[in-house]
Amino acid sequence: MTDLLLFAIPGLFIILGALIVIFARNPVHNAMGLVLTLTSLAILYISLNATFVAMVQMLVYAGAVMTLFLFVIMMIGVDKPEQTKEEIKGQKLLISGTLILLVSVVVLIVLENGLNWNLLFPQSQNTFEGTPSLLASAMFTSWVFPFEVISILLIVATTAALALAYEFRKRETND
Amino acid sequence: MSPEIILALIKPLLVLGLLLTNTIILIWLERKVVAGMQSRVGPDRAGPFGILQTLADAIKLLLKEQILPMKADKAMYLLAPIIALVPSFLIFMIIPLGPGFELTIGQESQFINMVGADINVGVLFFLAVSSLAVYSVVLAGWSSGSKYPLLGGVRASAQMISYEAAMGLSLVPVILYSGSMSMSKIVESQSGYLSSPIPIVDSIIGFIPNWNIFPQFLAFGIFFIASIAEVNRAPFDLVEAEQELVGGFHTEYSGFRFAMFFLAEYINMFNMCAITATFFLGGWLGPTFAGVLPPFLSAIMPTIWLGVKTFGLLFVYFWIRATLPRLRYDQLMELGWKRLIPLSIIWLMISSIVLGIREFGLPWS
Question: What is the pTM assigned to this prediction?
Answer without folding.
Answer: 0.83
